[in-house]
Fold these 2 entries.
Entry 1:
Amino acid sequence: MATQEIVKLVTDTVTKEAFGIWFLIGAALVFLMQAGFAMVETGFTRAKNAGNIIMKNLMDFCIGTVVFILLGFSLMMAEDYAFGVIGIPNLKILTDFGGFLKDGGAPSFVFNLVFCATAATIVSGAMAERTRFLSYCLYSGVISLIVYPIEAGWVWNPQGWLVNLGFHDFAGSAAIHAVGGITALIGAIMVGPRLGKYNKDKSGKVTRVNAIPGHAVTLGALGCFILWFGWYGFNGAAAWDGESLASIFVTTTVAPAVATCTTMIFTWVKSGKPDVSMCLNASLAGLVGITAGCDALNAVGAAIVGVVSGILVVVVVELLDLKLHIDDPVGAVGVHFANGVWGTIAVGLLADPAAPAGLKGALYTGDFRLFGVQALGISCILAWTAVTMSLTFLIIKKTAGLRVTTEEEIRGLDATEHGLPGAYADFAPAVDGSCYGYDDAVVVSGDVPSAEAVPVRTVSLPDPGGVKFTKIEIVCRESRFEALKSAMMDIGITGMTVSHVLGCGAQKGKPEYYRGVQIEATLLPKIQVDIVVSKVPVRAVIETAKKVLYTGHIGDGKIFVYDVENVVKVRTGEEGYDALQDVE
């Protein structure tokens, strides 16, 4: 053998082994995405259900592993296929595990398993906060056992009928995300909206859509970054050489970045401010959109995918919520279903013949054959999933029950489904009876020695004689207190009482929006400032407070004015006008 041939053989062997290792590393990155999904869903929902969501994401993978090893993997990657549609199960993975490992089946099993778990976990967020845990476990088992393996076999098994037609879904826009997305849509419809999400009149017509913000945008952002990081393994693990891997990394970066910028601008123009949660959704939407064609599109094509994904996710999320009144707390349908379909179709339009995959997109060649195949493939995958998952949810709803009771939903699923008092261990400080520095305070009762109290002058209750006392009660943001206090001092107010309160109320100021829905007033921490005046004009206090507190946004506060009969200064016993004057 010539030296050049030996060098080539060694190089090819090393390269093959290196990409085999990268294949398994990619599987590990995809597994890490389970944590990303858990964080996104937890952050976008309320704290009382955080433990339940973590549990569902954990069990998606664990239940999926059990059923996938029992039957799912054999259905998906069977060597024998009936009409290219249904794999004939081969249980070698159970009966001869050692031989299965030697045959090189283990890497394929692990890789396809983590993809299967991804399809299952997409549904968790759309059905969050009101779904029975048992019912969710049953659904998760069904999708990993039958639904995903069969349609994924069409796409990735060499004998699958879509593969033989030329259907291209490199990493799963259709086989994973569209499947999880349409299942999320069906599940959200069947389980119904969360309590308080939609106000209805007596006829059942929705009269108002209420925003229910998530409890921790920071958790959602962390999950988004974890998912983006894991997506390099999701899209890149199956790369066959260094050139294709580099190209995949480029498109996997460009599409979500452009999608996020697009959504930021779109929501900024539409609502007056860039929407944080929508931008997080947009990053994921761009990743979903590029997943099918990450090896077939160039950077320009990835950017086009990103622009469409960035607009599409906002339109679909708001369409479902504001028009169709389908409650999807995390935007799973807009991210995965809509962009899974778009990403699959985009391959038929934008595939660059010069890209590593070498496919012929219609906009480059004028040939619409690939576009037709992509449209047929995604339609059949969606039809299969819609039928099987509708039957699954219907059976679960009629037997085990799909939704928790009203009382359980109000209390939160952490407590009712898992016996968990709170996923955050209720970090509110407890009352422990500590003195906090007041150990030496004088307790006054009965006769008090003159050394412990100032002399008290006893006076008779004076006739107001035309002197009017007015109490002004101001409820406002705590952040504005220092400015309010300074302004009050400037107009002659020398005393005030401040209390921490919870406040809410309908406002006519500038509205705020969460995911396109106007945020209604809710109980929020406030401060209450009480001032009693006689000398300082009431109108001066009111106008000064309005000037200091006004921003035009919900929560600026309210001012209440009351008549006061009398004022008594406890220390001196003075009453009436003199009691309000800080002079000896």
Note: The CA atoms of residues 131 and 403 lie 5 Å apart.
Entry 2:
Amino acid sequence: MDNELIERYGIIGDLHTVALVSRMGSIDWLCLPRFDSGACFASLVGTKENGAWTLQPADDVLDNHHSYIRETLVLETYFQTATGVVKVTDFMPPRDIHPKIIRLVEGIKGTVKMKSSLVLRFDYGSSVPWVRRQHDDLLMVVGPNSVLVSSSVEMHGVGFATEADFTISEGEIESFTMVYFDSIASSPIAPNPATSLKKTLAYWKDFASSCREDFGEYTDVVTRSLITLKALTYAPSGGIVAAPTTSLPEAIGGVRNWDYRYCWLRDATFTLYAMMTDGLEKEAQSWRDWLLRAAAGDPTQLQIMYGVGGERMIPEFSIPWLRGFGDSSPVRVGNAASNQFQLDVYGELMDAFYQFRRVGLEPSDDSWQLELAIIDFVAAHWMEPDEGIWEIRGPRRHFTYSKVMAWVVFDRAVKLVERFGMEGPVEKWKVVREEIRTSVMEHGYSEALGHFVQDYDSTSVDAALLLLALVGFIDANDPKMTRTVEAIDKKLSVAGIVRRYETGPNNRDGLPGDEGVFLACSFWLVDNLVLSGRSAEAKHRFGHLLSLGNELGLFSEEYDPVTHRMLGNFPLALTHVGLINTARNLSGVKSPAQHRRSS
């Protein structure tokens, strides 16, 4: 089993869901029919008995590696054995009606004995399907779920698995396809693998060509990150998931394991900003429409996250039969943080609507009505404590960053009136904006320490404070800000990577264990170095961060600088957004930091 290292995985997807494929040719995670559905391959957080599809040489593997076909989401894995070399190509065609996984085995050199072992288990690894032959195919059914499996080689049952043993020689190609459909519907026709591959390659190359900018040495890594963000988009609604996985731990053996298969307003807004600045108007428009549907109604009921279709009910529970990645339990489904009050989200939304207009997206009357409701709500509640950007599970606090983002609400509201002719009580909003600024400078900044602090009753720093200059609250060269960056680097950096906040004996986040090193925050620190003119240092640190990705250019949520391994859910949209924005800031191509702070 490959699940001892997150970085050994790649992803394939169809714009509805994503599968994780290990470097040893095992699909260990897949939720069908969409990101937040139950998993049918769950060995990533369990064992092979909880569902996996392994396709690899039967003999010892001497060497192997995987890579994407350039500017696509088609994954190629090469295996070398004592008798030859074989390539496995994995992909999911962009969804038409049914989800499909297609796996091609091609002989490259010599002759290699291969083995396919398909263990399908719905309901997060607990439900064994009924398997029967349907002509030359296999039909697997359990409850509402059905799968049609086709292959160019003979398949047979072994226990509760479906296996195939075959030999592949140079120049030969064998294929496997899996098609999911509702059990009450008629069986679909298996797709033609070669035609499907051609169409899938064309789709992703067309997408890559639509978002390509010349970022010099960073062009390839930015393109890969944009493809990754596109893969994390739920096409029917435009919602963008934070990650396609649940419960990949922040520390091996720890309990900080969360379900990220939902749409965080904050993360999606950051993602959207990265896409907008690259001219991806279709994606931006789809996300805005998703937002208007999800957030429609009473602004007091605005949630920090929603389901991919805008669902509001995301109850959290644990799955006892899954042991967890690296024996890190519990494995959680749902997320109780969906009911938290996080004041900063309102600022992110207002900034997103403002940026829509700046980049020329057609305005919406509905969006302005929502914005007015947000403004009124924040005017009445900005002085209240909240759970903050990091979703603490302890008592609410007056987080400095949350107050700054409340300031952003009124700053952008004023600019929407003054620059875009929207109607509203602008003088009243200016007064509130100044009240919030005064509050932050009096209580969120410590004269004794010489830097901003995590919350009004704290002397600790918080990596979210790195965003103060990026949203335009303070100039990056202001001594208050430069000292804050220095304090964060000194107190939160570990081997050049930044933790979100300080933990230890006085930890107040309501959870046991230490806080991990968060990759997105590390990119924010580099952005501050760029804005303050420290370009050489910024470039050096950015190069170090890029070295932490896997061989496919994918990044997780966190990184352990001691064991040198990825941690947290994977791949994480927010990390890839940070990478894209920092690459742009360093290259000077549509610099997000310059653009956003000059709003």
Note: DSSP finds 15 helices and 28 strands in the chain.
